[in-house]
Q: What sequence folds into this?
């Protein structure tokens, strides 16, 4: 019995070639096996890429909401400056068509907290044609207490 392949025995009955045991021809078997496994493999790779991109967009939206709220929490900041800080971060990363809202719409000296909400559509930001993340929207928000200047 052959130690490397227990189902085949090396002996007198096995056909031998010039340099050792002759291989059984399996023409096309590898091609058929590859053709059967290829769709499953491509589906897994595509899904992995989509989920990785979704995770990246989720983290980027969260970071942009924080940066916008941080800018809006500074003394003398306006809502448009907070919105612009969040949008600039998203555009630098390459995220398209984000929606950034700042609450309150007008930051006054008496405003205690600033909330920035970032919404990113996954359809506009997918690297591949979206299969699993079609028509999804990632929404992240951050609220920070304003830094008030004491006279």
A:
């Amino acid at each position: 019995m052959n130690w490397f392949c227990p189902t085949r025995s090396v002996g007198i009955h096995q056909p031998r070639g010039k340099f050792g045991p002759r291989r059984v021809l399996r023409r096309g078997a590898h091609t058929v096996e590859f053709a059967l496994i290829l769709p499953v493999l491509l589906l897994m790779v595509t899904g992995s890429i989509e989920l990785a991109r979704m995770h990246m967009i989720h983290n980027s939206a969260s970071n942009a909401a924080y940066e916008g709220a941080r800018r809006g929490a500074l003394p003398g900041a306006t809502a448009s400056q907070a919105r612009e800080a969040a949008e600039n971060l998203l555009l630098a990363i390459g995220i398209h068509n984000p929606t950034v809202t700042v609450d309150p719409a007008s930051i006054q000296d008496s405003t205690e907290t600033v909330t920035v909400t970032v919404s990113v559509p996954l359809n506009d930001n997918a690297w591949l044609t979206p299969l699993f993340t079609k028509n999804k929207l990632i929404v992240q928000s951050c609220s920070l207490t304003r830094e008030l200047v004491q006279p």
